[in-house]
Amino acid sequence: MSITTKTQNREPESRGPGRPKDAQKDAAIISAAQRLFMERGFDGASMDAIAEAAGVAKATVYARFSDKEALLRQAIANKCGSYLDAETTEWRPGRDLRQSLIGFSRRFLDLVIDPEALAMLRLIMSEGQRGPQLPTLFFESAILPTVEKLSLFLKAEAPRSGLKIDDPAAAAWRFLGMIKGEDHMRAMLGVPTRGKAEIDRHIAACVELFIAAHQVHS
Which of 42, 172, 191, 197, CA to CA, is 20 to 30 A from 12? Predict the structure, then answer.
């Protein structure tokens, strides 16, 4: 029996105007898409197969996501959001900059060494041999939003903390690259990462270097 035949007996195809989206179905679709992307590659995972794996009709997938690129964007955004959520990235005015950067750095490093995030990055790099479309999608969906959140925070909070940062975006790029450092390289190569105590010392040292580099001296 074909996938198309199987999906015909599932749920009704139409959501109807104004009907709220079902969060559980969205999560199931994203989870199925992510799993099939890893197993079959981006081109090998069809929308039919994703619908089948998620247990929904293909029309339901298309009602929520226009194509596989939209699915991949959402999967990437969900993974990033699971680490860099509003509490972590939307700093309150006047909050201690040093502690904010330490907290953000820990969450960011946890994200970039997360096994699922690494698998997704490896998929993107592999698919990138065929063209820049998916690497560009990843860059725009994962990397640029993270840099933007950090640069906006630095622009708002650095002056209150006695720091002078002429180009917050460039400073954010340098800071994130410094934080990734050894542990991201280890994770990418499958070498065990360092223990929590070492990582905490690394993060604290990076934050101190960053602050010292931008400190306004009287």
Answer: 42
Query: What CA–CA distance (Å, rounded) separates 32 from 26?
Result: 10
The Cα 171–Cα 86 span in angstroms is: 21
Residue pair 61/29 in contact (Cβ under 8 Å)? The answer is yes
Contact 201, 182 (CB under 8 A): no
Alpha helices in 55-143 (DSSP H): 58-64, 68-83, 86-89, 97-112, 115-127, 133-138
Sole residue written with tokens 């065929």:
130
Q: Give Cα separations from 167 to 119, 125, 140, 150, 170 (angstroms).
A: 32, 29, 20, 12, 5
Report how far apart, in Å, the C-alpha atoms of 10 and of each of 14, 23, 45 are. Answer: 12, 18, 20
Bridge partners (DSSP) listed for residue 113 = none
- Render each residue's pLDDT in the chain as its tens digit; 218 residues: 333 333 333 443 334 444 445 788 888 999 999 889 888 888 888 999 999 999 999 999 998 998 999 999 988 888 888 888 766 655 666 678 898 999 999 999 999 999 989 988 988 888 888 888 889 999 999 999 999 989 998 998 888 888 999 999 999 999 999 999 999 999 999 998 899 999 999 999 999 999 999 998 75
Task: Tell how far CA 97 is from the center of its chain.
Answer: 23
